[in-house]
């Protein structure tokens, strides 16, 4: 197998590709070059791992702080939230009044039935005295608590009026509940849109060090799966929570009005429900955290296996990859099962308490009707209220698992938002004058890890128009050097000057707009070949695109494609060869016309004949700008103005090709190892 480059931590190819000039967010590093002692992502527990085998953060915050922070994101929509609360309260009030009114209709019917059984022409008191004289004291007590008229049956007109009012109350409550849900949907989706935008902006402000130490699949899971889960959790729980809490308050008020004694019996179930919910939620929380952590790991592993499918197949590791997937998938299954099983116990437990409450209310209420201290309609209404009172508590219990799952996902998203960002650009950042491309390394020192030296006290000057080739063994710090030019990392000490201005004082946009970069791992996005070339210069004309394609020899193969420049490249670029992809990335750099050009093994994926043509093209491109060329094949840099040989982060030699060969030093040994034979 041919060594095509120096790998980054864990071989992460997530940053490979050329940095399009003028786009500060396009970082280009990682798999394409050496990293020295770049910090690697924490390992997964067992088995070999690739770039996506990293372990995301495992510790979760407390439920309430994360919930409070999530709700705090509703602040920009405060007016809409108050509208939701107001409309929901109106809906709940109408719903709470309806059972009492329905109880009144029951009273009309029951009073009419009993009244028709009493002798007509008597007063109510006379009828009660008559019942007592007949020894029907219980019946007399019940009649004493009713609004009966002896000899008069059911007043169907009054019943119809009450039922009409109840129907209007239910319809009005339903309409208001729909309106509250509609307004809440606007609030939640706007909040999620804001959260996604914040995460997107945060990703562009994160230093490259973050991406070097975090699995790409897990990061993708956080910004897609976790945010979607937060959205669903908020959509499902907020509406029900608002309705449930308001319903509990309204129903409790109505129950106290009807019978303080029965209300006290009903309220006794509340602390028991809270206790049960708290105990179960405490046990299930850690399983929900594990569920979403395992989801990130599974996504990372799937992304790794899919990206490296060819290598997995070539090396016959399909069974091992499948076994690792099954292991992670089993962990996801176990954590998901436990989380859902434990949290699922909340609803049955609360329903059991609610049924006990229903039995107590029915028995005591029946006794009070019999004693004449309560009307049948009030008991009927109270039973409805007791059912409605426990229903919101049951709903809250059922929402605990959804809420905990959403909060666990929110913690993972907030962890990204809380990461340390790149240092901000100075407000009064200076700008170099005319772009000349002079680059000076002034006593530069840099380490990925504080305890592991990499580049120490390096000084180098690249004059305008010079081609500087950087060579050396794997891990010497070659790619690190050009990454420092682009400010992907900040220096520990020293300065890098571009046209006399310290790049640490320049804005990153200004700096990177002057630099074009082509890496050995070509990155293309889903779009046409024309779009990919024009990515280097937004607003490029058709003539500029064609000129860049011709000089980079893209034009030689593009006409053989069915749609020419309008050929759509899939996300993996599988419909064109690796060499053709590389030529497109070179064309992208050509069209940008940068003052500083960086080529990191840019021709490693093309055939020998095409390599010669590309070298001629890059020679034209380099003619009036400074170029840094990282190369392993020394034949590609013989004509460089200056060849810099690096070992262990230090420049050990520099000079022209002939001068370095004559010195018979490090370059001489490297050259002979390629063209003469291995230096033993």
From TrEMBL:
The keyword Nucleus does not apply. One of its GO terms (cellular component) is plasma membrane. Belongs to the ABC transporter superfamily. Lipid exporter (TC 3.A.1.106) family. Residues 82-405 form the ABC transmembrane type-1 domain. GO terms for molecular function: ABC-type oligopeptide transporter activity; ATP binding; ATP hydrolysis activity. Its main location: membrane. ABC transporter involved in fatty acid import. Transmembrane domains (TMD) form a pore in the membrane and the ATP-binding domain (NBD) is responsible for energy generation. Residues 439-673 form the ABC transporter domain. SMART domains: AAA (SM00382). PANTHER family: ATP-BINDING CASSETTE SUB-FAMILY B MEMBER 10, MITOCHONDRIAL, ATP-DEPENDENT PERMEASE MDL1, MITOCHONDRIAL. It is found in: Cell membrane. It comes from Rhodococcus triatomae. This is Fatty acid ABC transporter ATP-binding/permease protein. The chain crosses the membrane at residues 79-98, 162-188, 241-258, 264-281, 341-365.
């Amino acid at each position: 197998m041919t060594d095509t480059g120096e790998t980054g931590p864990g071989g992460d190819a997530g940053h490979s590709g050329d940095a399009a000039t003028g786009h500060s967010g396009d970082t280009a590093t990682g798999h394409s070059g050496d990293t020295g002692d770049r910090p690697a992502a924490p390992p997964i527990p067992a088995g070999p791992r690739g770039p996506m085998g990293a372990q995301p953060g495992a510790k979760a915050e407390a439920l309430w702080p994360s919930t409070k922070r999530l709700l705090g994101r509703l602040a920009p929509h405060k007016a809409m939230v108050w509208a939701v609360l107001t409309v929901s309260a109106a809906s709940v009030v109408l719903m709470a009044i309806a059972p009492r009114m329905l109880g009144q209709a029951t009273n009309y019917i029951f009073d009419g039935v009993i009244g028709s059984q009493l002798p007509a022409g008597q007063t109510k008191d006379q009828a009660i005295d008559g019942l007592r004289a007949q020894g029907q004291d219980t019946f007399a007590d019940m009649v004493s608590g009713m609004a009966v008229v002896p000899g008069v049956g059911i007043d169907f007109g009054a019943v119809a009026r009450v039922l009409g009012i109840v129907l209007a109350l239910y319809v009005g409550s339903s309409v208001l509940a729909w309106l509250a849900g509609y307004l809440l949907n606007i609030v939640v989706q706007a909040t999620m849109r804001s959260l996604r935008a914040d995460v997107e902006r945060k990703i562009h402000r994160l230093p490259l060090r973050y991406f070097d130490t975090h699995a790409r699949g897990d990061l993708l899971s956080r910004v897609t799966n976790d945010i979607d889960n937060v959205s669903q959790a908020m959509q499902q729980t907020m509406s029900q929570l608002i309705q449930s809490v308001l319903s509990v308050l309204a129903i409790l008020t109505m129950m106290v009005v009807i019978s303080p004694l029965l209300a006290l019996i009903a309220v006794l179930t509340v602390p028991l429900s809270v206790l049960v919910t708290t105990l179960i939620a405490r046990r299930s929380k850690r399983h929900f955290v594990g569920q979403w952590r395992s989801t990130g790991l599974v996504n990372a592993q799937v992304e790794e296996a899919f990206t490296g499918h060819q290598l997995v197949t070539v090396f016959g590791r399909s069974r091992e990859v499948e076994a690792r997937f099954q292991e992670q998938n089993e962990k996801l299954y176990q954590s998901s099962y436990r989380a859902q099983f434990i949290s699922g116990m909340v609803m049955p437990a609360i329903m059991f308490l609610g049924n006990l409450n229903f039995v107590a209310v029915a028995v005591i209420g029946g006794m009070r009707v019999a004693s004449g201290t309560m009307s049948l309609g009030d008991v009927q209404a109270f039973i409805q209220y007791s059912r409605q009172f426990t229903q919101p508590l049951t709903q809250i219990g059922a929402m605990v698992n959804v809420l905990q799952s959403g909060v666990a996902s929110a913690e993972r998203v907030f962890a990204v938002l809380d990461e340390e960002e790149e240092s901000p650009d100075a407000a009064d950042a200076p700008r170099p004058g005319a772009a000349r491309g002079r680059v000076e390394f002034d006593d530069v020192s840099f380490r990925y890890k504080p305890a592991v030296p990499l580049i120490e006290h390096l000084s180098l000057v690249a004059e305008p128009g010079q081609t500087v080739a950087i060579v050396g063994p794997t891990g010497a710090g070659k790619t690190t050097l050009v990454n420092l030019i682009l400010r992907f990392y900040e220096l520990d000490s020293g300065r890098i000057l571009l046209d006399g201005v310290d790049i640490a004082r320049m804005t990153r946009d200004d700096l990177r707009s002057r630099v074009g970069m082509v890496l050995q791992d070509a990155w293309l996005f889903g779009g046409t070949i024309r779009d990919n070339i024009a990515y280097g210069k937004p607003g490029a004309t058709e003539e500029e695109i064609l000129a860049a394609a011709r000089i980079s020899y893209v034009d030689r193969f593009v006409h053989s494609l069915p749609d020419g420049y309008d050929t759509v490249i899939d996300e993996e670029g599988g419909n064109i060869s690796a060499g053709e992809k590389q030529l497109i990335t070179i064309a992208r750099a050509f069209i940008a016309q940068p003052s500083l050009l960086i080529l990191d093994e840019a021709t490693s994926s093309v055939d020998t004949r095409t390599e010669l043509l590309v070298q001629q093209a890059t020679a034209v491109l380099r003619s009036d700008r400074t170029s840094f060329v990282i190369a392993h094949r020394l034949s590609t840099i013989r004509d460089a103005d200056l060849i810099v040989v690096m070992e262990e982060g230090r420049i050990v030699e520099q000079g022209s090709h002939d001068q370095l060969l004559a010195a018979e030093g490090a370059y001489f040994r490297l050259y002979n190892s390629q063209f003469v034979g291995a230096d033993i």
